[in-house]
C-alpha cells in the first residue's frame, strides 16, 4: 500500500486548497443545526428518550457523506496520476565463464565441509552480484566439458553449481582442457569485456592441451583470466584412495598447487592470481574480482502515467448521490 501511494503524483496540487472550506462548512452546519433546535422545558425526558431510534441518532452525521464527497471531488480536481517507472539498459554487461575443478582432491576437508562445497557457495554469491552479465560454467577433472553456456538466466547457473560433485569425470587435473573449453565459449562473444575465473586445487597432470597454449588463445581473444588456487598451506585431510563401492578413503596429504603456472596464465592475459586458504579469503577474492570487473551501465529511465482522477470523481459522486437519496427516504424530515 505504501509503495502504491508513493507512486501517485498530483498534476494540480493547488486544488487541495479547496479543502480549507471543509472546516468552514462543518462550522456552518453545526451553527445551522443549533439554530433549528428549540428549547422546551419538561419535567422528564423519559417519554422522549423512548422515542429515540437509530434514524434520529444517525441523522446528525448525514452531512459527513457530503463532506467526504467534496473531499473526493477535490482530489479528482488535483488530477492524481499513477507513475509507472521503468529502466532501459542500453550497455552490455561482461561475459564471464567460471571454470571449476571437480577432481577428487576438491573433497579435501581443510575447508568445511570441503573445498568443493565452499567453492560452489561462494561462486553462487558472486553470480548474484552480477545482475547484467552473461555467465557460463565449465568443469574439469581429468577431462572437461561445458556445464552451462553463457546465459543471463542466473538461476540456471546456480542450479548447475548446486549439482556439481566429484566423480562426474575421470579423475585428474586437466587445467589446460578446462581453460580451453572456457576460451572456446568466448569465441562467439561480442562483449567488449570477457573474463574467465579458473579455480583449481592441484597441478596439471591430464589432458592433451597445455595450459599455456590455452592461455595464449585467451590472450588472442582479449579474454582476461583470473586464477584461484584453493587449499591450505601444508597438509590437509584429503581423499587418498577409493573403495570398491565408490566411497573415498581419507588421509593426510600434502597440498600441491602449481602457483607458478597459475600466475603465468593470469599475467599473460591481464588477470591476477589469488591463493585461497580458507572460506573467508575465497570470499574476499571473489569480492575483489567483482570490484575489478565493474562496467558502467548506461541506463535510460523513463516514466509512464495512468490517469486516476476518474476513480476519485466516481467515488465522490456516489457519496453525493447516496447522501441525497438517504435524505429523501430514510432520513426525510417534515418542513
Show the helix and strand layout.
Elements: H1 2-6, E1 8-10, H2 21-36, H3 46-50, H4 54-58, H5 63-77, E2 80-89, E3 95-101, H6 115-129, E4 134-140, E5 144-151, H7 154-163, H8 175-186, E6 194-200, H9 211-220, E7 223-230, E8 235-242, E9 248-254, H10 259-269, E10 273-276, H11 279-292, E11 299-307, H12 309-328
Helix pairs in contact: 2-5, 5-12, 6-7, 6-11, 8-9, 9-10
> What fold name stands as the CATH topology of the largest domain?
Rossmann fold
Number of strands: 11
Distance between the termini: 46 Å
N-to-C series of helices and strands: HEHHHHEEHEEHHEHEEEHEHEH
Q: What would you say the CATH architecture of the largest domain is?
A: 3-Layer(aba) Sandwich
Briefly note the structural class of the backbone: alpha/beta
Average of pLDDT: 85
Binned strand content? 15-25%
User: Mind describing the biggest β-sheet?
Assistant: 6 strands, mixed
List the domain count as a whole number.
2
